[in-house]
Amino acid sequence: MTATLRTSPLLALALALLVTGCDGGFWSGEPEHRERTDNPEILARGEHLYQQYCAACHGEDREGAENWHQPDEDGNWPPPPLDGSAHTWHHPWWQLKDMIRYGGQARGGTMPSFEEQIDEEDAEAIIYWLQSHWPDEVYEAWLDYDRNTPTPADWEEATGREWVTHTD
Ligand code: HEC
User: Fold this and answer.
1) Whole-model pTM?
2) Which residue ranges does the record assign to the Cytochrome c domain (predicted)?
């Protein structure tokens, strides 16, 4: 009995950590340094998910909307290309995951949330697949950017902007 009483607060803490960890959120609390992968299973998973959930807006070949660099008549930004030709490399790993899982609506954008359909590993598979198609120099620029802004706090300091997510 005494033993249970003594261990239970620790257990509660461990459980709480586990729950927050599993919840995923957009920020795991630790910088994740990822490199491109050529693992065929991961890439196939990413491609499949992309075609299922993303191609309708971002294009079958990831080419984005035609006038993606101009807001439409309602002032909304159209879906940008994800093929390495636009500014996707300007988002560190954690930010890409946040964008893919929770969309852009928390920041005034129109991309919907995929929280229910896409889990963290799915989002990672999509990023791996997208990056497997980026030209090497774009990927290298992304790596630098990612290494320089490995946490939301680093990114906010570097850009002077706030990263608002649906969990804020
Ligand atoms: C209904 C259309 C729509 C769908 C579906 C959609 N997006 Fe988007 N996406 C957008 C729009 C529009 C933006 C621009 C930001 C905003 O308005 O939220 C965007 C922005 C992004 C960005 C940021 C790119 C950059 O260069 O800044 C990424 C990454 C992204 N989408 C990935 C995805 C992925 C991966 C999927 C599939 C899971 C997906 N999107 C599904 C419309 C969509």
Assistant:
1) 0.87
2) 41-134
